[in-house]
Amino acid sequence: xxxxxxxxxxxxxxxxxxxxxxxxxxxxxxxxxxxxxxxxxxxxxxxxxxxxxxxxxxxxxxxxxxxxxxxxxxxxxxxxxxxxxxxxxxxxxxxxxxxxxxxxxxxxxxxxxxxxxxxxxxxxxxxxxxxxxxxxxxxxxxxxxxxxxxxxxxxxxxxxxxxxxxxxxxxxxxxxxxxxxxxxxxxxxxxxxxxxxxxxxxxxxxxxxxxxxxxxxxxxxxxxxxxxxxxxxxxxxxxxxxxxxxxxxxxxxxxxxxxxxxxxxxxxxxxxxxxxxxxxxxxxxxxxxxxxxxxxxxxxxxxxxxxxxxxxxxxxxxxxxxxxxxxxxxxxxxxxxxxxxxxxxxxxxxxxxxxxxxxxxxxxxxxxx
Length: 369
Ligand SMILES: *[C@@H]1O[C@H](CO)[C@@H](O)[C@H](O)[C@H]1NC(C)=O
Ligand SMILES: *[C@@H]1O[C@H](CO)[C@@H](O)[C@H](O)[C@H]1NC(C)=O
Ligand SMILES: *[C@@H]1O[C@H](CO)[C@@H](O)[C@H](O)[C@H]1NC(C)=O
Ligand SMILES: *[C@@H]1O[C@H](CO)[C@@H](O)[C@H](O)[C@H]1NC(C)=O
Fold this sequence. Notes:
It is a single-pass type II membrane protein. Helices cover 45% and strands 17% of the residues. By secondary structure, the chain is an alpha/beta fold. Strands 1, 2, 3, 4, 5, 6, 8, 9 and 10 form a 9-stranded mixed sheet that branches. Strands 7-11 form a two-stranded antiparallel ribbon. One 2-acetamido-2-deoxy-beta-D-glucopyranose (NAG) binds at residues 104-105, 109.
């Protein structure tokens, strides 16, 4: 076998090499192009300069008292004291205490990474009548990690929730360098995320990073829940924005956004809304393919040690995977490479399966009609 392998002719070698390159191009090409070639250029005009200037001069001290009235639970004191490197705001639904417990026991059970303090809080709105406020108060007294805004936590209020929580971070946690917005169905690898942020050393400002969505269009179907009318957003495309499952902004970006929130209608979906605010402030989202967006990444230990997030984590998966990636065993370059190829390939196959099932279903609907 080995003998015949060595005897391959040049064109046969070329063919094998070509296939290897093609394989990698198919698997990683899109990520590569997005990461290095699809960046648009930031633009600066007088308005942008003015926003940046105002954000820099913003003094939140006198606003604190009035703003604290907008939150049922405002945890005014949690950020006092030491500087926080990364503040994670986990967007959770009020009735989902069991998921919050699971997150507390797994990926959020980190208070510092190599000396850099990490703070994790849960972001809630008011519960619908099915859940009692008392349960939330009890949970909050026990863990002191719940912020609750004065608005109904419904699917239609998610943009408002994002605005309220950014405002909270600017007002009550101005000493947090970076703010991670993440949903409760996600798994987050905090250590690898912190490593990434530390490597941005030369510019810790104007960071808005996540899985960037290009050329998304507003939903113009009036029947739909996230309908956006032409009067609310006249343009054909949204500006590039970071997928809302998980993204990071630096404190200065949060402050700039705070300055421009009022200029964009709340009817726009939360993640596109943040993208529009970023554009107002002259910011360009930074793409990293290590954010999963809404995809569930198939588990592989070395892959999970490398990526930042994975979506749709089940209650059973979360503790298992957390334990395994925390075993202290490092991954070699080759293992990481193999892990990435394997989890990427399996994730594509999953997407393909979903796509097929969706296609079959819609065909069935078609025939049923
Ligand atoms: C706080 O609210 C009061 C009453 O609405 C208002 O008079 C005051 O100017 C507000 N303070 C600040 C700093 O906005
Ligand atoms: C968090 O981790 C520490 C050890 O790193 C452990 O002692 C503690 O019980 C964990 N907390 C929870 C809520 O699981
Ligand atoms: C959003 O929250 C406000 C304040 O609680 C509430 O009046 C409104 O009905 C909510 N909107 C939706 C779409 O749920
Ligand atoms: C709790 O969160 C999980 C993960 O996002 C989700 O699957 C589940 O439906 C949620 N349950 C409630 C009651 O909101």
